[in-house]
């Protein structure tokens, strides 16, 4: 996991939370980061697989302190990811709730089949 922050309690708390979400998802965290831009906190977690209908797009979870978690597809490196859906409820839901939500997305494994479940 990549870290971009000043030594700050809020960022350390977010880093711990994102690490818990990463573990709940069964991910390594290698393609993720927590970022503090001034006083604004955000996080990025790359997901394994693709969404049905977006076979050529990588999928990521984005978190921000105002709206919580969102699922997005990567467009092009010059553009921000395109948000498709947001997880309703608290800004920092339990990591298991985030994992259940991601499981319900029915990601298609990156095995070349690229067919919807």
Summarize the structure.
Helices cover 21% and strands 29% of the residues. It has 117 residues and is α+β, with helices and mostly antiparallel strands.
Description of the molecule:
This protein is α+β, with helices and mostly antiparallel strands and 117 residues long. The chain is globular and about 40 Å long. The chain is built from two helices and six strands. Strand 4 (59-64) and strand 5 form a beta hairpin.
Indicate the structural class.
Answer: alpha+beta
The largest sheet, given as strand count, sense and whether it forms a barrel, is:
6 strands, mixed
Rounded to the nearest angstrom, the distance between the terminal CA atoms is 30 Å
Tally of separate helices:
2
Q: Quick one: overall form? A: globular
What strand order characterises the main sheet? Answer: 1-2-3-4-5-6
Q: Mean of the pLDDT scores?
A: 85
Task: Count the beta strands.
Answer: 6
What is the H/E order?
EHEEEEEH
Which band does the percent of strand residues land in?
25-35%
Rg estimate, integer Å: 14 Å
Helix residue percentage: 10-25%
Contiguous uncertain segments of 5+ residues: 1-5, 113-117
């Amino acid at each position: 996991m990549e870290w971009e922050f000043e030594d700050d309690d809020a960022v350390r708390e977010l880093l711990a939370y994102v690490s818990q979400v990463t573990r709940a998802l069964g991910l390594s965290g290698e393609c993720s980061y927590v970022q503090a831009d001034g006083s604004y906190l955000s996080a990025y977690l790359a997901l394994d697989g693709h969404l049905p209908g977006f076979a050529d797009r990588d999928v990521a979870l984005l978190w921000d302190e105002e709206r919580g978690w969102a699922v997005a597809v990567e467009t092009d490196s010059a553009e921000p990811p395109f948000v498709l859906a947001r997880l309703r409820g608290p800004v920092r839901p339990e990591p298991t709730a985030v994992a259940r939500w991601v499981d319900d997305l029915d990601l298609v494994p990156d095995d070349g089949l690229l067919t919807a479940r």
